[in-house]
């Protein structure tokens, strides 16, 4: 490690160059029918008995493993934290999680009131400026009477019929309206039908319907 970073890199490069040459010779021996030393040969181990680490065929020996940027290549990524189950997540959810207790601390409400006053003051100031601008242009402004009652609006008392008024509102009926006599006749027919259904037997009802059919009623 005392040789310095550049000297260590040079030595490590030289070792890898010799290893590549050794690999070429092993491949040539295999081509000539000899043993496959790349497969049956002993593995390269460091002084701790561990296999020499490498990246894409490039090996790092001795102090080269501790060079800047090299150590990070072989550091194992930490395992991700275990995921919580749905029950564990729901255990910490309460009313405060949904914001229902934001005003309990007494901080939010005064801030909202202060902001509300500021917004109202800005709106009033904007209205005053627009009003002064209209008056400066000579435009007459008609004040809106907020107490005026719209003719189209009516309350419960105004909606009731008032007898004895001279200017009663006239209505135009767009559908045929039955007369009082027609209404009374319809009620009598309905009453007869109710009595027949209540006291008459099914045979009489059938005969009555047959008679009406024959008479064309």
From TrEMBL:
Keyword Manganese assigned to the entry: answer is no
Record protein name field: ISY1 factor
Coiled-coil zones = none
Q: Where is the composition biased (Acidic residues)?
A: 139-156
Q: Which gene encodes it?
A: Isy1
Q: Which residues does the annotated region (Disordered) include?
A: 133-176
Q: What is the similarity comment for this entry?
A: Belongs to the ISY1 family.
Q: What is its main location?
A: nucleus
Q: Which Gene Ontology cellular-component terms appear in the entry?
A: nucleus
Q: Where in the cell is it found?
A: Nucleus
Q: Which InterPro entries match?
A: Helix_hairpin_bin_sf, Isy1, Isy1_sf
């Amino acid at each position: 490690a005392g040789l310095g970073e550049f000297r260590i890199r040079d030595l490590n490069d030289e070792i890898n160059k010799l290893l590549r040459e050794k690999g070429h010779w092993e491949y040539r021996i295999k081509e000539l029918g000899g043993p496959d030393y790349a497969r049956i040969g002993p593995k390269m181990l460091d002084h701790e008995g561990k296999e020499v680490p490498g990246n894409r065929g490039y090996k790092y020996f001795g102090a080269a493993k501790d060079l800047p940027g090299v150590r990070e290549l072989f550091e194992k990524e930490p395992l991700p934290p275990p995921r919580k189950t749905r029950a564990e997540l729901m255990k910490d959810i309460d009313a405060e999680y949904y914001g229902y207790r934001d005003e309990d601390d007494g901080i939010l409400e005064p801030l909202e009131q202060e902001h509300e006053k500021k917004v109202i003051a800005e709106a009033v100031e904007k209205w005053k400026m627009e009003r002064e601008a209209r008056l400066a242009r000579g435009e007459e402004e008609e004040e809106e009477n907020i107490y005026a009652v719209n003719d189209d609006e009516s309350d419960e008392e105004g909606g009731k019929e008032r007898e004895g008024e001279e200017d009663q509102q006239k209505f135009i009926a767009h559908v045929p309206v039955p007369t009082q006599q027609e209404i009374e006749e319809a009620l009598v027919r309905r009453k007869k039908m109710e009595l027949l259904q209540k006291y008459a037997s099914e045979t009489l009802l059938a005969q009555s319907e047959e008679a009406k059919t024959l008479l064309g009623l």
